[in-house]
Design goal:
CATH superfamily of the largest domain: MetI-like
Order of helices and strands: HHHHHHHHHHHHHH
Structural class: mainly alpha
Number of strands: 0
Keywords: Cell membrane, Membrane, Transmembrane, Transmembrane helix, Transport
GO cellular component, one term: plasma membrane
Helix content: over 70%
Strand content: under 5%
Subcellular location: Cell membrane
CATH class of the largest domain: Mainly Alpha
CATH architecture of the largest domain: Orthogonal Bundle
CATH topology of the largest domain: MetI-like fold
InterPro entries: MetI-like (IPR000515), MetI-like_sf (IPR035906)
Protein name: ABC transporter permease
Distance between the termini: 68 Å
């Protein structure tokens, strides 16, 4: 009489143990499948991101060159490449040009122009708005080599289209105003992203709040300050962060000016390219690349902190 009650709990325990084992097998199988899906991405990240980063770090600590004895037997020089870069007038000049280029074409040019186009598009009918957005996007999706050729033809000092329009014969824009040219060029190329992001942001502004502001007698500036900007502030910070980082690292202006003349458009990506590949100083070029990464991290940290403060 006493054996039967004890057998039932024992069977229940065995059943629960089997279910737990089955659940463990299912969980293990799920983890294995998840690992199988993630593994190719991890391999690609390791090959194309982690390994190049570690290799660049190694090169920055050596006197590695493209040719000569340093190519076969590079020597460890520690932080000498970093100290040399920080004391190099060419690096200082390139950094100043890069900051001016980023501020002019990204922070001011692309952000302001992108928002202006998005703002004006909200006041156009759908057909005209689609045409405007198409031509702005066209500047973004055309290959860089084709875009550069078009701008070279526009700014050419001999038979350039701009000189023909303005009647300024033989004004060599790329020679006299190289930095200004690449700022305008990069603004023209990259404005489409800002336009699309701000268009999405403006679409999220409640029309009822705008209508209330109009009924209260608020002008255009007051509507922007009190209604629109509070809703798009986060989008504006995100847009500025992304285009700042992209502009800071862009190499496309090399196709237009190659950093010249007299290094007046020699922004950091071009400076690193010329130093590492033209001069063969891969170690110094790698060191400056890591300095660029640090600058990018500082910029990203500032923007992310501003975004974090906005959410509080």
């Amino acid at each position: 009489m006493l054996a039967a009650p004890s057998a039932a709990p024992a069977g229940a325990v065995r059943a629960r143990a089997r279910r737990a084992a089955d659940d463990g097998d299912v969980a293990g199988l799920g983890r294995a499948r998840a690992a199988a899906f993630v593994a190719p991405s991890l391999v690609l990240i390791g090959v194309f991101l982690v390994f190049p980063a570690l290799w660049t770090l190694y090169l920055g600590l050596t006197n590695y060159r493209l040719s000569g004895s340093a190519a076969l037997h590079p020597k460890f020089v520690g932080i000498q490449n970093y100290l040399s870069a920080l004391s190099d007038d060419r690096f200082a000049n390139s950094l100043v040009l890069t900051l001016a280029f980023v501020f002019g074409s990204a922070v001011i040019g692309q952000s302001v122009l992108g928002f202006s186009i998005a703002w004006l598009a909200t006041r156009l009918n759908s057909t005209v708005r689609s045409v405007v957005e198409f031509f702005v996007l066209l500047a973004w999706i055309i290959p860089s080599s084709v875009t550069t050729f078009l701008w070279y033809a526009l700014l050419d000092g001999t038979d350039g289209t701009l000189n023909s329009i303005l009647g300024t014969a033989h004004l060599a824009w790329l020679l006299q105003y190289p930095l200004q040219c690449i700022i305008v060029f990069n603004t023209w190329v990259g404005t489409a992203f800002s336009m699309m992001l701000f268009s999405s942001a403006l679409a999220s502004v409640p029309p009822s709040q705008l209508e209330t502001a109009r009924m209260a007698g608020a002008g255009t500036f007051a509507q922007f300050r009190d209604v629109i900007f509070p809703h798009i502030r986060g989008h504006a910070l995100t847009n500025t962060l992304l285009i700042t980082l992209w502009t800071f690292n862009t190499f496309t202006p090399y196709l237009l000016t190659a950093g010249g003349p007299d290094d007046r458009s020699n922004i950091l990506p071009i400076f690193i390219y010329r130093l590492a590949l033209n001069d063969g100083a891969l170690g110094q070029g790698a060191a400056i690349s890591l300095i660029m990464i640090v600058i990018n991290l500082v910029i990203a940290t500032v923007y992310l902190r501003l975004l974090k403060e906005r959410k509080k």
